[in-house]
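Narrative progress, year one. The postdoctoral researcher (J.K.) led the effort to move from monomer predictions toward full complexes, under supervision of the PI. The following entry was the first complex the group processed end to end, covering 424 residues in total.
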Amino acid sequence: MNQQTIDRIRKFTEDRDWDQFHSPENLAKSIVIEAAELLECFQWSDSNYDLQHVKEELADVIVYSQNLIDKLKLDIDEIVNMKMEQNEKKYPVEKAKGNSQKYNCL
Amino acid sequence: MNQQTIDRIRKFTEDRDWDQFHSPENLAKSIVIEAAELLECFQWSDSNYDLQHVKEELADVIVYSQNLIDKLKLDIDEIVNMKMEQNEKKYPVEKAKGNSQKYNCL
Amino acid sequence: MNQQTIDRIRKFTEDRDWDQFHSPENLAKSIVIEAAELLECFQWSDSNYDLQHVKEELADVIVYSQNLIDKLKLDIDEIVNMKMEQNEKKYPVEKAKGNSQKYNCL
Amino acid sequence: MNQQTIDRIRKFTEDRDWDQFHSPENLAKSIVIEAAELLECFQWSDSNYDLQHVKEELADVIVYSQNLIDKLKLDIDEIVNMKMEQNEKKYPVEKAKGNSQKYNCL
């Protein structure tokens, strides 16, 4: 996401004085609520979905994730790289290749 | 997220030949599953949470969201700006300021 | 669920003095957390699932739903019948038969 | 839930020929979608919620849970008692009393 888009998300919250509602817990609830709305696009079919609706709900997940990053003053590259390092260890290529099993079953 | 981090996410999937599991529906399920794990950090308290755990689960949400963006060949700035435009109209500053009510109750 | 099972759920909470944690909001969070664990049984496949795991996670959803019913002093038959009446009107047989579309698209 | 209410849920599905959509996976998605709608009642406040809305969304969770029980031909008392036995062992009264920590932290 470029800086201009991130700034737009931040300005939206500031302009509405909504930081007061953005506790980490409320944002975590909001992320799961939007993620479930995204899933609703695939509730009865995995192939017959409304792409425009998918884009909107995925955008909502991303916006609330950015809100939580801002609230907790996190660095997105830092936390994602930290997690990818864990994932790379939990799912070594030689065991995980072509295999969708959870790491504790590999 | 910078290009290097995005490339690391993509390489992780490619190295494991996991694109075959990344149907949009499976990724939507994965996002909600990780979002619920993030929420679990706040299950019984809104203030007493494990920040390291929050970072890890939020990173998982972000990684699967990036996977879905890649799968559907979306432009993150385009979809977020499209949604922010909708949000700005649904929540006009003069009505929404300091108010957490849903747009259809404003 | 028979009365003995319901009583066992209630006794479990009482014995541990957990009513203090069972705010309606915390129980709503708990239900979605367990529902996502249920969904995790189907994360990468709709057919290849661990039935024992499904039973356990579904039971967790049911137990927290019972906790919320107890907390709010609801009558399960009353709320389900009230909702079924709404559903029967929203999805008239002649329109909804063999059709998985949402009521606002019928 | 009494037998009449359960029968009403089953008849609703049969009359609409919806069993074809009720794969275990689709029902698991549906449960988490409704659970998130229940959580939405508490998105920005733990105390200021619409009780009628809570009842409706909780009823939806219960109805889809019953659908999944029916689909998998499960016995609700059997699976709940099986899980309560696990819970009673994981959370012994002497350790868990008045304590909301997860079993692996007790």
